[in-house]
Amino acid sequence: MGTKSPMEMSGATNLMSGWVRAFAVEDCPVGEVREVIVDGQILAVAHLDHGFYVLDGICLHQGGPLGRGTLVGCHVVCPWHGWMYDVTTGCHSASPTVKLSTWPTQLRDGAVWVALRRTSPAHGHDDH
Ligand code: FES
What is the C-alpha to C-alpha distance for residues 99 and 89, in angstroms, rounded to an integer? Predict the structure, then answer.
């Protein structure tokens, strides 16, 4: 019934551990995907029967909003041209080497928390 609009969250960050409170559990029912913006980062959240998965919300094809796509089994389907990614791995369904970043999640206090550490080796970053 409701429209899919990005949920913007900025508070409740536990920077010591890297875990960030992303959204309330009831904001993403089982079988659906949502776009969530956490600390300025666009994420796609998928709720499968057995839990939540968080991956990069920007499609690697042409930047489509994956969080506004649909969930088919364990795959999110990009709303622009239909590329499909396994939400449990971030891998493109036909070309597994094409891979989105993913982040671990945990449930706490009725909310989903995301470990927003960089897990993709593709993102080189200078550390001083
Ligand atoms: S932008 Fe996602 S399939 Fe083209």
Answer: 8
Regarding the beta carbon of 95 and ligand 1, being less than 6 Å apart is answered no
Tell me which residues of the chain have a pLDDT lower than 50.
1-3, 8-11, 118-128
Q: Is 44 in the pocket of ligand 1 (CB under 6 A)?
A: no
Between the two ends of the chain, the Cα-to-Cα distance in Å is 48
Does the beta carbon of 64 sit less than 6 angstroms from any atom of ligand 1? yes
Query: Which pLDDT score is estimated for 45?
Result: 96
Determine the pLDDT at residue 7: 56
Cα separation, 9 vs 23, whole angstroms = 7
- The domain ranges of the chain are 7-115
Is domain 7-115 annotated with CATH 2.30.29.30? no
Cα-to-centroid distance, 22 and ligand 1 (Å):
24
Q: Whose CA is nearest to atom 4 of ligand 1?
A: 81
